[in-house]
Amino acid sequence: MTEEQTQTAVAVKLAYLVGQYPAINHTFVLREVRKLREMGFDLRVASVLPADRAPEEMTPDEYDEARRVFNIKTTNPLLLFGPHLRTLITHPVRYLKTFARTLGRCAAAPKTATSTLMYFIEGVILGSWMREQGVSHVHSHFASSVALLASRIFPITMSLTIHGPAEFDDPAAFLLTEKLRASTFVCAISNYARSQVMRYSDYSDWSKIEVAPLGVDPSLYTPRPFRQVCAPYEIVFVGRLAPVKAPHVLLAAVELLVKAGRDVRLRLVGDGPLRESLEHEAQARGLGTRVVFEGWLNQEQVQEVYEETDVFALASFAEGVPVVLMEAMAREIPSVATFVNGIPELIRHEVDGLLVAPSDAEQMARAIERLIDDTALRHRLGVAGRQRVMEKYDLFRNTALLANIFTRRLAQQVSVGLSTAKRPVPSRVAAGEMPLIGIAPKN
């Protein structure tokens, strides 16, 4: 960042809203938060859910963040009463109007009525906390419905980071068009994500969309020792054992390699709803010790796995731009992935890694087999993968880009607020609803 941008960052005060924080599968959010604070942002984090692990299972950075975070959900329902009563008194029209709208959505979609009502309850808690903290802008990762409702009730503004691909599976249910319209700006982590946000939004809102890629720390993810001779050849997957990740395709590919006489072992790092099915499938295919279920590991433990990895494999049916793929590439681990969604923006086929068709276990097996047989290719793609990450997905460079987006966009809000302040004062401002940094309240 330039000196001017850094000075602006010091003045920026905002809230981050996350679905769960800290969370072992979203460590990139933690790194982003801590890096923005280092750049001078006054950044407060609210999490819908508490941390996913006990303190003794966290890294020092995770433990520090767990102590700072404001947890919206509470086991004591009495703590919900105060913020809702205060909000009903101070913002009665907005509160009742938003509540009525929420009930309408519940009636229209009974299957999701409980979660819809919870979003409203959580939105009030979030908005009340922000007012107490003196913060008037919230940026959301994975909790945009809560942010949307808070922005309707309170004189606060919102922005989003859109990751994909889940948001694009059912954009109507996700309220994608509505959320973009309500947002000051939206960060898409890839050009693919930007294209889908554009697809499901009005042209008049396209100017709000910014591309803000994620990144990894290349000084933390350094090249691991290259193994000329591999016995067994270690294939690693890191992620949630969920249908979208297609881990069953990886099992099928490993079976083909074993039948071809290849000495391979697949290590699945992560957990999820498919674990039991995968364990049964591995036994049914006769893979036995050829497949190891590691479960969730913290970042230090994942780093230890990377030390022994010969290829990183990702068979996903859909993806954003996976941070775990960036991590593996930064460690010079040659990667094989499917050419879906945002992945080709990270991996260029035959340049930074190998891309295969989704659902095709035979292609996946052949690509891995190429790397087994061609040591020079395996080494070249590993080195090129790290270079790609350093050029396009460096955490420091991309967080500086995000910081620039925040300072520029929020400065524009202040400018708009100042010009609005010269007009006749609306009655709701006189009633105490003036936003904290001079941004005109939403209707």
Describe this structure in words.
- The protein folds into two domains: 3-215 and 395-433, 3-Layer(aba) Sandwich (Rossmann fold), CATH 3.40.50; 233-392, Glycogen Phosphorylase B (Rossmann fold, 3-Layer(aba) Sandwich).
- It contains 20 helices and 13 strands.
- The protein has helices at residues 3-11, 27-38, 60-68, 78-90, 92-108, 113-133, 144-153, 166-169, 171-174, 176-182, 191-199, 247-259, 275-284, 299-307, 323-330, 343-346, 361-373, 375-392, 395-421, 427-433, and strands spanning 13-20, 42-49, 70-71, 137-141, 157-162, 185-188, 209-211, 233-238, 264-269, 291-295, 311-314, 335-338, 354-356.
- The protein has a seven-stranded parallel β-sheet, with helices on both faces.
- The radius of gyration is 24 Å and the shape is elongated.
- Residues 1-10 and 418-443 have low confidence and may be disordered.
Task: Provide the fold topology.
Elements: H1 3-11, E1 13-20, H2 27-38, E2 42-49, H3 60-68, E3 70-71, H4 78-90, H5 92-108, H6 113-133, E4 137-141, H7 144-153, E5 157-162, H8 166-169, H9 171-174, H10 176-182, E6 185-188, H11 191-199, E7 209-211, E8 233-238, H12 247-259, E9 264-269, H13 275-284, E10 291-295, H14 299-307, E11 311-314, H15 323-330, E12 335-338, H16 343-346, E13 354-356, H17 361-373, H18 375-392, H19 395-421, H20 427-433
Parallel strand pairs: 1-2, 1-4, 2-3, 4-5, 5-6, 6-7, 8-9, 8-11, 9-10, 11-12, 12-13
Helix pairs in contact: 2-19, 4-5, 4-6, 5-6, 6-7, 12-17, 15-18
